[in-house]
Structures are given as structure tokens and as C-alpha cells.
Amino acid sequence: MLRSVVRLQSVLDGARPLRKYFTRDPTSYFSLHRKSYSSVLTERRKFYDDVSISQGDGGVYEINLDRRKLKTPGGKLFTAPNEALAIAVATEWDAQKDTLKFYTMHLTTLCNTAIDNPTHRDKKQMITAALKFLETDTVCYRVDDPPPLVELQRNEWDPALRWIENRYNVVIGSSSNILGPEIPKATIDSFRQHLNSYNFWSLTGLEYVITQLKSVVLSLGLIDRHLTVEEAVLLSRLEEEYQIQHWGSVEWAHDYDLYELRARTAAGALFVQLSSESSTAQRKLMQD
Amino acid sequence: MSGLLPPLRVFRGILKELRAAKGSTYKKTLAYNYVIDQFRKNEVTGERQCRARQEALHASQAYLCLLTSTRQHLVLHNLYHGKGERTPDQAASMVGLRMPSQPGGKGWEN
Q1: CB–CB contact B58 A228 (8 Å)
Q2: Of the candidates A47, B20, B97, B99, which lies 20 to 30 Å from B58 by C-alpha distance?
Q3: What pTM was estimated for this model as a whole?
Q4: Quick one: average pLDDT of B70-87?
Q5: Å from B102 to nearest chain A CA?
Q6: Are residues A91 and A232 in the same domain?
Q7: Is A42 on the interface with B (CB under 8 A)?
Q8: How many domains does the structure of chain A reveal?
Q9: Is residue A111 located within the same domain as residue A125?
Q10: Together in a domain, A75 and A213
Q11: Quick check: is A143 in a domain?
Q12: Could you tell me if residue A19 is inside a domain?
């Protein structure tokens, strides 16, 4: 299909078509006049050998591919707020073999999103968008039938729900009604206040985790280190896992999804922790 | 619920993944040195640093999960993701058929 799209575009563009899409100049990919933001589908030939990091102005870290500085798809200079995140991103670039597979570079993607902010939202809008998921939170929607699944959901989801209610001193509740549980306004307000203490980068990561797990409850449990990535993903896919036990696992669908979801969730959780860490790292250094 | 693995297992797991990604030169990478450094720093710890240690352990386990899952996902991706269209011959042979051959050519060549 991709081939036919290229063919179609080449017809539209007239005489100088394909070279534009397969240019060898590495900088062009990251420059502004390449308007597409969808690097997901495309793979590029690897154009560098050596990856290193360096500290730029204001103590931020930059990524160097050979002698070139990495830029974001929006054309800005790529910067990471601390060494750990910079090294993790550099490792992603270093791990690429012959082609750059952008769909395996989750931390790079998250940094790009935080730097470019392609949807032009501010913190308040992001918090509202994240909390919107609470109304349709995975762990709040229960089934009535079949009984083993009802019991499974009660046994697995209730502890996570109770933990979050105690931790934040709020009421969420669950329901098997199609409208879901009635979330009190006080709960939303108290979460909003809590999320306000996150910085922009952490919020970007948190929202990413929430959209992956389809659950605010599980995401906060993960970020607050009550759950590990594997546990959070398992709880998020509980019904699917139940069906797999009955009907069998299909590798190209179930396992593929599972690993992708785990990778994305782990990247998001790590991103939140690393980007809210810069102050603790300072403190630790001073203790030594 | 706390499914945290022992630190040594996470440590070994991360190094194994770095090695799988980079081959035998993995000891020269930035990540290798950083990981060794962090685990050493958190090795001996008093009550006071307990929280920081827990934090580091959680982060390292998330990183291990990220590396492992990305690799496993890529294996399945390479195995199952579509690589474009097949030729009529390939498509036919998939279902046990063969395209008819015409010894003298089909007439529309040249």
C-alpha cells in the first residue's frame, strides 16, 4: 500500500518525484519543511556510526549523531533535562541496526512530543484530558457475566482501586452499568490539584501512560510505584487475558499487542520518573 | 502488590539486553557505564536512602521491561508485519497452485 501511495504522489508531483522522498541528506528528515509528523510508518537508512551526548547551554543534554546534533521533527534542537534520559535516548539511537525504526524508539518519541508540543496544549488542558479518562476508567467498568470473569475482576481490580482511594483519600467506586460509576467532583478536584504539581514533561509521560493503559487508576498506581509495569499491563488487559485462557493465544495479535503495550507503558513510566527527577539527583549528588 | 525483582537480576537483565542490542562492543556504550555506576552507587544504603533506592530499583525494572519488550516486539514485527505485495507467482504458490506457463511467450511482451 505504501508503494502505491508513493506512486500516486509521484504522478501528482510530475517529473522530479521519487528523489524527494529518498533523499540522502540526513538533515532534511529533521527539518521544518518536511511537514509530516508521522515518522511511525517510515524507516530510514542509518546515516551515522557514533552516538554521544554533550551538555549544552543551561545544563541540558544534547544528542550527537557523529558530529551532527539531533533535532526534533519540528526542527528544534533536541534536548533532555538530565543525563539519565539523554543516555537512554542515545542508547535507542545506538541500538538501531541498518535502518532507523522509529516505532521502537519510545523515549525519543516522548521527548520529541514534550519539546515540540505538536498539539499546542498547556498544562491545564493536558490535566483535563488526562482526567477525562477517569470517567471511563478500565478498572471501574465491571461485567455481570460470566461469573468467573466477574470474580477475577473483583479480585484483581479491587485492591488497586482501594489502594488509590486510600492514597489520595478520594472516592471512585466501580459499576457494571453502561454509564459507569458516578465520580464525585471532589475526586476530580483532588486529582487535578495533585497533577498540578507535575511539570510539563512528566505530564506528557503520564498522559501517554494513561492512554496506553486506558486507566488513570492503574497509571497512578504505576507512577507511585505501587505496581510494576508488568502488573499494570496485566491488569489493563485483564479481560483479554481471561479470553486468551479460554480461546488460546494468537501470537501475531495477542503477543504482539502485549509486548508493544509493555514497551510503551515502560517508556512512559520511566519518562515520568526521569523527567521529574532533576531535583532529587542534585540532592543525591550533594549527599555523596 | 509489589512484584519487584531482586536488584541483581534486574542488573544482569539490563546488561544482557544491552549486549543483545550492541553485540560484543556493548561495554563501550554510554548506557553500560551509566548502569554499572548507578547500581554501584545504590549498592550500600542506610535507612535514610531507602526511598531513593526503591525509586532507583523501580526505574531500573521499568527500563529492563522497556528493553526486553521492545526487542520481543521487534521480533514479532519482523515476523508478521506485512512487507508489501506478493507477486502473482508467490500468491499462487501459497495456496498450492502454479501460474500457467506459456512456452512461446504470452504475446504481449516486447
Answers
A1: yes
A2: B20
A3: 0.81
A4: 88
A5: 29
A6: no
A7: no
A8: 2
A9: no
A10: no
A11: yes
A12: no
Residues A217 and A88 in one domain: no
CB-based contact B52 A284, cutoff 8 Å: yes
Q: C-alpha cell of B73? A: 516486539
Report the pLDDT value the prediction gives residue A56, as an integer from 0 to 100. Answer: 84
Chain B interface includes A230 (CB < 8 A): yes
How many angstroms separate the CA of residue B38 from the nearest CA in chain A?
10
Give me the pLDDT at residue A26, please: 41
Assess whether A239 and A223 both reside in one domain.
yes
Which of A83, A231, A256 lies nearest to residue B76, judging by beta carbons? A256
Q: Where are the domains of chain B?
A: 7-94
* Residues A51 and A72: beta-carbon distance below 8 Å: no
**Of A81, A116, A151, which residue constitutes the final position of a domain?**
A116
A241 CB within 8 Å of a chain B CB: no
Are A62 and A205 part of one and the same domain?
Answer: no
Find cell 507511585 and name the residue: A224
Considering the domain boundaries, does residue A20 fall inside one? no
On whether residue A109 sits in a domain, the answer given is yes
The answer to whether the CB atoms of B52 and A280 lie below 8 A apart is yes
Domain with A138 in it: 5-13+27-33+121-287
Based on the domain organization, do A110 and A146 belong to the same domain? Answer: no
Report yes or no: A83 at the B interface, CB cutoff 8 Å: yes
Residue of A nearest to B80 (CA): A252
Mean pLDDT to the nearest integer, A117-139: 92
Which of A100, A116, A132 is the last residue in one of the domains? A116
Determine the residue among A270, A278, A279, A282 to mutate to test chain B binding: the one whose Cβ has the most chain B Cβ atoms within 10 Å. Answer: A270
Same domain, yes or no, for A236 and A167?
Answer: yes
Residues of A (109-138) whose Cβ lies below 8 Å from B:
none
Model ipTM over 0.90: no
